């Protein structure tokens, strides 16, 4: 079925799968660059909305993943979670086994490290293809401004070949210089731990300010002057404003997936991440409030309306503080909060 394309001359034919908050903005920047070189990109998304927007910017819409594979020798993917990545790559591997042209797959989603390894190993049965794991840092607004931080892992030659494309979407590229693709996913989880830890800290501090009747505007001014870091200033502003729209977000659902992954990584490696445990509880509370599709900075709402699980934690904490001489005083953080990783 794909035979008519077997003999197409090998030149860069870029395909993109997954046009969500991140994928759309990244693909759009790459498409602009390709258009400047009189090239175009082929895109596919599960639902057509964003693919149609890309068409207005000159991209070609594939009728199916099969159509996209037939037309591409470089395929980027940006998908919600591990399940989506596994589902799409199952189809991609099947098709990759049927084509003679070689394809470089560039997987940019935040997935668990062992899944990256599994995908690379699955692809190894068709050795003309290459699998790169290249997760990205930055919210959709940074993706739109082409100011992401890219992390690369996988075959060095393929990374060099695609480096120019990566630069059209990012301000910094961190080359891990390893063919072990699980490293980039682990790196991404470590980076996201710093992000979610920052959010937890800001949410707690801003709630304290609110409850102690400390002027919010002045607190924001203080943060800007004392911690002039985009993540601090942006997230503190987001937490003190009503959510404007559901566009340009990193959702609570995606955040929960990331925090669940970092907790699992901590458990498997013997590290301890009490901050991630606390943040996980708080994100879960926001999800229970029916806000799984809100920006994950709404973690601040969990502190306003305690959920039963959190109240339980607070009761335990009070018990710890109240009985300084008692045995409870030796309770560890894991007694207070759930174990570092559970299968929820
Ligand atoms: N948002 C951020 O700030 C941010 C920052 C850095 C990294 N990331 C990571 O980047 C990835 C994408 O995030 P996002 O914010 O762009 O998510 P998103 O807006 O929810 O987009 C998810 C994409 O995955 C597609 N998808 C979901 N399930 C699928 C399935 N079963 N089969 C095929 N396609 C499927 C969606 O298609 P539909 O459009 O049809 O639903 C959409 O294109 C995630 O791994 C996330 O962790 C996000």
UniProtKB/TrEMBL annotation:
SUPFAM superfamilies per record: 6-phosphogluconate dehydrogenase C-terminal domain-like (SSF48179), NAD(P)-binding Rossmann-fold domains (SSF51735)
UniProt KW keywords: NAD, Oxidoreductase
Sequence ranges assigned to domain 3-hydroxyisobutyrate dehydrogenase-like NAD-binding in this UniProt record: 184-301
Region described as Disordered: 292-344
Pfam families, per database record: NAD_binding_11 (PF14833), NAD_binding_2 (PF03446)
Active site: 188
Domain annotation 6-phosphogluconate dehydrogenase NADP-binding: ranges: 13-175
GO molecular function ontology, one term from the record: NADP binding
Domain of life the protein comes from: Eukaryota
InterPro entries xrefs: 6-PGluconate_DH-like_C_sf, 6PGD_dom2, 6PGDH_NADP-bd, HIBADH-like_NADP-bd, HIBADH-related, HIBADH-related_NP60_sf, NAD(P)-bd_dom_sf
Family: Belongs to the HIBADH-related family. NP60 subfamily.
Protein's name according to its UniProt entry: 6-phosphogluconate dehydrogenase family protein
Origin species: Entomortierella chlamydospora
Organism ancestry: Eukaryota, Fungi, Fungi incertae sedis, Mucoromycota, Mortierellomycotina
